[in-house]
Amino acid sequence: MPTTNTEPTTEDQLESIIAAAAAAFDTWARTPYADRGKVLTAVADALDDQADVLLPVAARETNLPDGRLKGELKRTTFQLRLFAEVLGEGSFLDARIDPADAEWPMGAPRPDLRRQLEPMGPVVVFSASNFPFAFSVAGGDTASALAAGCPVILKAHSGHPELSLATGTIVQKALQAAGAPDGLFSVIFGTQAGRNALQDPRVKAGSFTGSIPGGRALFDVANSRPEPIPFYGELGSTNPVFVTRAAAAARADEIAAGFASSFTMGAGQFCTKPGVLFVPEGSSIPDKLPGQVTVQPAALLNSRIQSGYVESLDKLSSSSSVTALIRADNALADPPAPTLLLTTAQEVMEHQDELLAECFGPAALVVTYQSEDQLLTIANDLEGQLTATVQGEDSDDVADLVRVLAKKAGRILWNQWPTGVSVTYAQQHGGPYPATTSAGSTSVGTAAITRFLRPVAYQNFPQHLLPEALQDANPLRVPQRINGSLTTAS
What we know:
about 500 residues; alpha/beta; Aldehyde Dehydrogenase, Chain A, domain 1; Aldehyde Dehydrogenase, Chain A, domain 2; five-stranded mixed beta sheet
């Protein structure tokens, strides 16, 4: 049942939506992969065709500039098309074939075993506020779930309801025109409707992008069900940057400029914003930063984001451990001017929870350290992060630091900046808690499809009853790992 307004979805409406999604699952899961890809491409084409309709609504509801919104819509349709390519290539199935082997060395004959990844079922996607296209109605979670073969129930974000309705309507019409089953995609509104959908036994997975409190509450709901389900939540991250002494001496101006641009990008409302910069004591970088923060204040997305930013910044700036590098008179106004605070590594080691808390907005903390041993100590005590960055020189002996950061973050950067997450085959956007609730998954890139798939093994089946990807004839021409060796169809 298509949603026609932004009023909270009623219980009766939600029941119809979930029932339709459950009915659509069997059809969509059996839809040939190439046909699924054509449907995703049709959705991308429809969104591109309706850009002139969507962009003004997005600008009105989010305060984001036209250039940012155009780029984000382009990214959204790009990732839909990229998943269509993945469906055509087939390696996402991870098809494995172990033929029967009477001489298997474990001491007993090996039966014929064949394994592939298969779709879980209907998925509830909770859209984000800070990316009204790319992490919203037709964003990465929706694209990867549909590509995996799962119907999507999209819980619209309250920050851009009209855009969610407009985008959802375009997606539904495109799916219908492309011959997709009814109920494959629906948009719901209201906090309670989202919770109720996540608790419904017909729903088999959930995904979320937002705050730590909100994501943790939904994660607990997913895990407290009689049948717990996977919940892929992206929650919070400060994305620390570590500058070595050699780098600070060689590239102070470059590092100051890069950091200033990165932490203020999009008014500091990127989940990958570098919120803390570690520099050696005596470095000129802290002195250079105020001159580099030259961006004009940009509006925050909505009043809810604004109030959260004010609360977080008040807590951080009121600490006796910090002083101000930049604290304009309108730092807490709307729009807020960028804020930079300063403290020491010793203070961070003593008050890490207080000083390294995420501050979602155009604010960051600069930390001076006395020895690089302090960096290792701090890195070892870090919570999970989406990203961690090292600004260093090739001659730096930072292997120990990199190894520690690899345990703490999903993406490690060398001499680049974490804002700007490319949609690629190798991208990893996720990390240990509280960055995400599932460190083994990504919400960006083609590997995201595996979040909504589960492995199924078929033992001793005749060829005609096997999924095509597991048949000896391999009619889909997908990569197969046969008896441990990867083979590709010619």
